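Thread: quick sanity check before group meeting

JM: Hey all, I'm pulling together slides for Thursday and realized we never actually wrote out the predicted structure for the chain we discussed last week. Dropping the sequence here so it's in one place. If anyone has concerns about the input, flag it before I start.
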Amino acid sequence: MRKILFVCLGNICRSPAADGVMLHELKRLGLEANYLIDSCGTSAHHVGEPADKRMRSHAMKRGIELPSISRAFNSSEDFEKFDLILAMDKKNFRDLKSMDSSGLNSAKIKLFCDYCSNRNETEVPDPYYGGAKGFEDVLDIVEDGIKGIIKSYEK
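JM (edit): ok, ran it. Output follows.
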């Protein structure tokens, strides 16, 4: 069982998009039984909320559901539970690294965009304060990265 956690700040835009796209692709490929997928935020501002309505709407236009409910990263559980922890941007990457006081989980923490092959971004931009194009851009980046993640595991 491969266990992957996607992490952004509030867990309502970028990481739920990655979570939903990953679940969608795994189901399409018949691989969902081989993976445990989740998402969370480094902040607790939106705990208990579904993904942002705009992100859900843009994902649904692509036939993708975003079922996640926001939760905060739990260092005492999540470092132990997940094999791969993907930060959507460099700030969250640094925050995750700082939460790993022992340094034992450092190799598990990576940047999401490291798995992109058709995009040049180094971070998934936060679309929260932008317009429709920002949400579409996030989904484009996420779809590329998800393909790379699956490819790296299914070689």
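AS: nice. The chain has a mean pLDDT of 97. The first strand starts at residue 2 and ends at 8.
JM: adding both to the slides.
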